[in-house]
Write a structure and sequence with these properties.
The chain is mainly α. The protein has 5 helices and no strands. Helix 1 packs parallel to helix 5 and helix 2 packs antiparallel against helix 5.
Length: 152
C-alpha cells in the first residue's frame, strides 16, 4: 500500500507535483491545475491542524467510507464534495504565484512527513480522528487522486 511514510512514495508524489504546469488541462472536475495545487496544500494544512475545518462526519463516513477510501484497491471516484474550507470555489486558498504555490505544497507535505513532528493531527472532517499511518495513506491517496485529475 502506498503511503507518504515511504520515502519512495513521497518522492513519487513530489516528482509528479513538479510536472504540473499552470495550463495543464484537467480530465474531470472544475479546478484549474493551479487551484488543485492550492487545494492539496490546504489539505496538508488541515491534516496538521493549520487550517481548521468544521466536522462534517457521520457514522457511515467515519467507518465504511473511511475504510473504503483508505484501503480498498480502487481509484477514488470523481466528484466527491470537499468541505467548504478546502473547496476552491468557496473557502480554499486562492492561487498566487504558481511556482511559489507548488513549492509551498511540497514544503507542507515534507513537514507532515518529517519526524519528530511539530504539530498535532486534526480530526478529519469526514473520517474523524485518524492514526498517523492513516494520515500518511490519506495524504498519498489525496495527492495521487488530484494529480491523476491532471494527467500527472
Amino acid at each position: 500500500m502506498k503511503t507518504l511514510a515511504d520515502p519512495n512514495c513521497r518522492q513519487e508524489i513530489i516528482t509528479r507535483v513538479y510536472t504540473v504546469r499552470p495550463d495543464t488541462p484537467r480530465r474531470w472536475g472544475k479546478m484549474s491545475a493551479h487551484q488543485m495545487v492550492c487545494h492539496l496544500a490546504d489539505g496538508f494544512r488541515m491534516y496538521m491542524g493549520l487550517r481548521p475545518v468544521a466536522d462534517a462526519s457521520n457514522p457511515v463516513l467515519r467507518i465504511a467510507v473511511k475504510w473504503v477510501a483508505l484501503w480498498a484497491p480502487l481509484p477514488w471516484p470523481h466528484g466527491f464534495q470537499s468541505v467548504p474550507e478546502l473547496d476552491q470555489e468557496q473557502g480554499g486558498t486562492k492561487p498566487g504565484e504558481f511556482n511559489r504555490d507548488v513549492d509551498e505544497l511540497v514544503r507542507l507535505m515534507t513537514r507532515m512527513t518529517t519526524r519528530p513532528k511539530d504539530f498535532e493531527w486534526q480530526a478529519h472532517p469526514h473520517f474523524g480522528p485518524l492514526s498517523e499511518g492513516e494520515w500518511m495513506r490519506l495524504g498519498y491517496l489525496h495527492a495521487s487522486h488530484h494529480l491523476r485529475q491532471f494527467g500527472c
